[in-house]
């Protein structure tokens, strides 16, 4: 077996593993089944690609989208690795190449959709072809608790068994405790090795703004990112088309993408976004999963996302190369009403609707967080961190007040009702509502009944979300949305700690006086550096000539490293981030020509 560090350098051109990668790679090489939860951009693909090259046999990768398969196959071939895919977009010649390569034992990585693998004939053929690793990407789709459950993914446990209970690695960026347990139950007979390598993406700047002049707020954000690639998510097809037109008229290279467009037009716009620089994709959530473009410099939400998991997944499409990237989410009461209406009118089971309501509540709590947004976001996934210094609340601050008394009222209501009730019941107690449930449980006799009459229900909802965001209470998603106290909440209830809460989210947006700042993402090379622009132009030309996404040639991180190091020899070029032997042989001459011209 070849040393994985040697493969990492010689094939992929990386000097070292990213955090968490090496121990997963070594677990796979030791023959263990693995469930890996890693943040977007942490290099999940390498965790199955590298072990494949370190030993004999074929790896089958389950992938949700044809476009992703195509791009991954192209990227692997550029690294000099034999790869292919089984999907409905293949022409007969490509299918023959794949079948011959698998039969001859030359194929190392084969991508396939879950639907294709559900075909018994396909799995029987693969079972005879020396498959020794099954890799399941976007594994949260397996679980009914996942935010993007797909029925075809639920069949993968049977696929694995038909392949002889082959060694399996399942990977995802978003899986809470309930989702992780469901994935394990559906895929594995025995408990796999679990790796949770954090949800933090420190290179992403997080920002949220209540809508005041939404179009103006969005354009102000985009003005900081002229000539950079990014995504703007909209809540409807019509909003997508209108915003794409407005941005085009304002001088942006903006393209729409939504499920109502013809497939050919969607594919063309996606290819332009992947192959060219400075393109803004204005899209519904139909765009995103499997879009492996590492140099997306910003993601904006023109309206509130579907849930906190969806928000995390969507902003995670920015900055996958590790360089600074920017995010902005605009939200308003109309967005919240729309999301709640979508949940109630969906065909989901009552239990699933309940979970979706709680997920939406968690997202609204993030919008109204009284402290560092990254702390609030990571707390949802069970992690703690220090204030990040890279979100709007850390940078700009908030209008706040001593909310200890308000927090104690909420905490007292939770404790006095046995930590068994959800938001609306608790708020009813605080404002003194004599509802049927409150009277039935005798909660109108509690000392906390009516102690919050001085505030509206909406204010109490906001305050409850804030103390949740501040870590005073926990939400049991799988237990009817009941609230429980944390140790910090107990300390506040007993008067041992104080808590600052936000006042600006309790008043009308028109009355807000929040400070604004425009903090530019820093880079070692400015985005308008002439050398960097010329290197990007060459990359775009080569990507078009070869019919592949631009990042397959080189990522932004590699080009920035070139522009910073300015190598003029092949040896120096080989020291650039992401330049392995295959890319050194293939591209050194073309890029060195540009580098030497600028050196002269």
Automatic annotation (TrEMBL):
- Extract the InterPro entries matched here: DEAD/DEAH_box_helicase_dom (IPR011545), DNA_helicase_ATP-dep_RecQ (IPR004589), DNA_helicase_ATP-dep_RecQ_bac (IPR006293), Helicase_ATP-bd (IPR014001), Helicase_C-like (IPR001650), HRDC-like_sf (IPR010997), HRDC_dom (IPR002121), HRDC_dom_sf (IPR044876)
Ranges of residues in domain Helicase ATP-binding = 25-193
Q: Which GO terms describe its biological process?
A: DNA recombination; DNA repair; DNA replication; SOS response
Which GO MF terms does the UniProt record name?
Answer: 3'-5' DNA helicase activity; ATP binding; DNA binding; four-way junction helicase activity; hydrolase activity; metal ion binding
UniProt-listed Pfam families: DEAD (PF00270), Helicase_C (PF00271), HRDC (PF00570), RecQ_Zn_bind (PF16124), RQC (PF09382)
Q: What class of enzyme is it?
A: isomerase
Q: Could you tell me what reaction this enzyme catalyses?
A: Couples ATP hydrolysis with the unwinding of duplex DNA by translocating in the 3'-5' direction
Helicase C-terminal domain boundaries? 214-361
| Documented EC number(s) | 5.6.2.4
Q: Which cofactor does it need?
A: Mg(2+); Zn(2+)
Keyword annotations for this protein? ATP-binding, DNA damage, DNA recombination, DNA repair, DNA-binding, Helicase, Hydrolase, Isomerase, Metal-binding, Nucleotide-binding, Zinc
Name the GO cellular-component terms.
bacterial nucleoid; cytoplasm; replisome
Domain HRDC span(s) in chain numbering: 525-600
Question: What family, per the record?
Answer: Belongs to the helicase family. RecQ subfamily.
The protein depicted here goes by the name: DNA helicase RecQ
Can you name the source organism? Microvirga makkahensis
């Amino acid at each position: 077996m070849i040393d994985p560090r040697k493969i990492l350098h010689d094939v992929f051109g990386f000097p070292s593993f990213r955090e968490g990668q090496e121990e997963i790679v070594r677990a796979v090489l030791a023959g263990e089944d693995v469930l890996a939860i890693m943040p977007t951009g942490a290099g999940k693909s390498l965790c199955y690609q590298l072990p494949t090259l370190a030993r004999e046999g074929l790896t089958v990768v389950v992938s949700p989208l044809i476009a992703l398969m195509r791009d991954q196959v192209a990227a692997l071939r550029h690294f000099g690795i034999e790869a292919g895919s089984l999907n409905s977009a293949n022409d007969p010649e490509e299918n023959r190449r794949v079948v011959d390569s698998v039969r001859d034992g030359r194929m190392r990585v084969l991508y396939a959709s879950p639907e294709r693998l559900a075909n018994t004939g396909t799995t029987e053929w693969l079972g005879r072809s020396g498959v020794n690793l099954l890799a399941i990407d976007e594994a949260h789709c397996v679980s009914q608790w996942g935010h993007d459950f797909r029925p075809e993914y639920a069949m993968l446990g049977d696929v694995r068994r038909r392949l002889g209970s082959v060694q399996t690695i399942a990977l995802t960026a978003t899986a809470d405790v309930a989702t992780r347990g469901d994935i394990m139950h559906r895929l594995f007979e025995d408990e796999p090795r679990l790796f949770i390598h954090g949800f933090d993406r420190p290179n992403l700047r997080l920002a949220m703004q209540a809508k005041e002049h939404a179009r103006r707020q969005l354009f102000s954000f985009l003005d900081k990112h002229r000539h950079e690639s990014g995504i703007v998510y909209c809540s409807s097809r019509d909003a997508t088309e209108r915003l794409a037109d407005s941005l085009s008229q304002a001088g942006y290279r903006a393209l729409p993408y939504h499920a109502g467009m013809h497939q050919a037009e969607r594919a063309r716009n996606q290819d332009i976004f992947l192959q060219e620089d400075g393109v803004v994709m204005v899209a519904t959530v139909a765009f995103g999963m499997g879009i492996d473009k590492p140099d997306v410099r910003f993601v904006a939400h023109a309206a509130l996302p579907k849930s906190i998991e969806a928000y995390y997944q969507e902003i995670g499409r920015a900055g996958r190369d590790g360089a600074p990237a920017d995010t902005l989410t605009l939200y308003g009461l109309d967005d919240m009403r729309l999301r709640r209406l979508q949940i109630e009118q969906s065909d989901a089971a009552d239990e699933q609707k309940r979970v979706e309501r709680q997920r939406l509540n968690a997202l609204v709590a993030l919008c109204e967080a009284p402290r560092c947004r990254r702390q609030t976001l990571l707390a949802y996934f069970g992690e703690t961190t220090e204030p990040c210094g890279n979100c709007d609340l850390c940078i700009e601050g908030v209008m706040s007040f001593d909310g200890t008394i308000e927090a104690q009222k909420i905490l007292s209501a939770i404790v006095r009702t046995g930590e068994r009730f959800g938001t609306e019941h608790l708020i009813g107690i605080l404002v003194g509502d004599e509802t049927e449930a409150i009277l039935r449980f005798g909660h109108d006799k509690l000392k906390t009944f009516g102690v919050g009459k001085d505030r509206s229900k909406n204010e109490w909802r906001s305050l409850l979300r804030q103390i949740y965001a501040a870590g005073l209470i926990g939400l049991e998603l799988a237990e009817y949305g009941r609230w429980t106290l944390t140790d910090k909440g107990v300390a506040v209830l007993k008067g041992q700690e104080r808590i600052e809460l936000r006042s600006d989210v309790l008043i009308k947006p028109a009355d807000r006086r929040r400070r604004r700042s425009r903090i530019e993402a820093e880079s070692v090379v400015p985005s308008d550096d002439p050398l960097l622009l010329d290197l990007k132009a060459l990359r775009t030309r080569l990507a078009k000539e070869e019919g592949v996404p631009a990042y397959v040639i080189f990522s932004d991180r590699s080009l920035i490293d070139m522009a910073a190091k300015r190598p003029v020899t092949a040896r120096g070029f080989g020291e650039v981030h992401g330049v392995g032997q295959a890319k050194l042989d293939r591209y050194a001459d073309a890029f060195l020509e540009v580098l030497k011209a600028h050196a002269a």
